[in-house]
Amino acid sequence: MITVNKALLKILQSLFYIFPVCFIFGNPAINLALISIILVGFIYYKKNILKDFNKKILFLFVSFFIIVLFSSYINYFFIEANKDAIKSILYLRYLLFLFVIRALIINRHININYFLSICFLLSFLIALDILIQSLIGKNIIGNNIIEFPGGITYHTGVFGDELIAGSFLLTFSTIGIFSIFNLLKIEKKLINLIIFFTLILFFLISILLSGNRMPLLMFLIFLVFLGLIYKKKEKLYFFSFATIVSILLSFLIINSENLIKRAGNFIVGIPNPIIIIEELKKEYPNLKKYESSGIQFHNLEEFKSTKNSKVYPFFYWSFINLYNIYRPFFRQTHCWRWY
User: Fold this and answer.
1) Are 235 and 324 members of one domain?
2) Which residues pair with 153 in a beta bridge?
């Protein structure tokens, strides 16, 4: 029995450490790893999975997932029958995943430094691959730069046709970068800061090349908050570095037609709340024919046409971006509806 428990723990630890790698291979690998961690974790910890769990915090987490399920089925039974509502029960796996990760941490069965180091090394390799792709036109496995009409390009690296390289770097570089102090173990603080700032610039350029605008914006916000927590002397170094990076970033954007277009599209895509509220009050009877067809609203011919409405073409990108972010909240409105 002891041998079996040791084997289960080793498997659980291995699954936890390789979990970031699964994000490279897509959702099937992520879900497989997630379910495996949950199953092995519950088999190993059994009833001790919730040992010493603060009741208030437990109640908060459980309540959140119950509210999500309850609201989904209220919508399903009383407003609109939608097959996606049935899938909402699968979100409970994240609650179970949370229980297992918490048990691993409080029982000291994982080394957080190992996990952060893996995140850093993965982020570094992905960022390096993107830089190689930008220099020679192909990454290390032969993937080409993704090009769209209008000269807009994306450097996706190992992700191929998936435009998620920036999101991956944002997720794992912002936590993995702190492992360099443990990996390098350099005593001189100034050298540590120089290396730290150089890596930040390295990741920032890679996210910029990836073409993902929101990850770039979120990474910049991360840097701002990072600067606020530094002590006075380090804060001076940090904001001096931030100034240099801002100048360099502006220079890169100004001298790149692709980046100027991306920045312009981002600004155009910022939704105007007043216009959105006005549009939500309008009726679109000509769209009733698409009900239950499964066609996304931005693929409708009426939406693309410049003849039927003055609103559609002018606010096209604003509505696209807003709908992608707030899709669940627009399900019951008129032209935003998921037909």
Assistant:
1) no
2) 147
Q: At 179, phi and psi to the nearest 5?
A: -80, -15
Total tally of structural domains belonging to the chain: 3
* Whether 228 and 317 share a structural domain: no
Q: Are residues 210 and 291 in the same domain?
A: no
Q: Assess whether 279 and 254 both reside in one domain.
A: no
Name the residue with higher pLDDT: 282 or 308.
Answer: 282
CA dihedral 318, 324, 328, 331 (to 10 degrees): 60
The answer to whether residues 161 and 99 touch, using CB atoms and an 8 Å cutoff, is no
Q: Tokens 């080394």, residue?
A: 111
- Whole-angstrom distance, CA of residue 182 vs CA of residue 267: 40
Are residue 146 and residue 256 in the same domain, yes or no? yes
Q: Which contiguous run of DSSP H or E holds residue 260?
A: helix 257-268
Number of residues written out for the chain: 339
Domain end (from 45, 76, 106) = 106
Q: Of 158, 173, 207, 155, whose CA–CA distance to 24 is shortest?
A: 158
Considering only CA atoms, give the Rg of the chain. 24
135-156 burial code (b ≥16 CB/10 A, e <16): eeeebeeebebbeeeeeebbbb
Residues 235 and 288 placed together within one structural domain of the fold:
no
165 or 281, greater pLDDT: 165
Are 131 and 243 contained in the same domain?
A: yes
pLDDT of 314 over the 60 cut: no
In the numeric block, which tokens belong to residue 241? 């570095």
The residue behind tokens 């603080």 is: 189
- DSSP H/E element including 154: strand 152-154
pLDDT band at residue 309 using 50, 70 and 90 as cut-offs: very low
User: Is it the case that residue 126 has pLDDT exceeding 90?
Assistant: yes
Give the pLDDT confidence score for residue 321 in this predicted structure. 45
Q: Note whether residue 16 is domain-resident.
A: yes
- Of 81, 106, 131, which residue constitutes the final position of a domain? 106
Query: DSSP class of residue 110?
Result: S
pLDDT for 277 equals 73
Can you name the residues that pair with 154 across neighbouring β-strands? 146
Print the domain residue range for 323. 269-330
Inter-residue contact 316 to 297 (CB < 8 Å): no
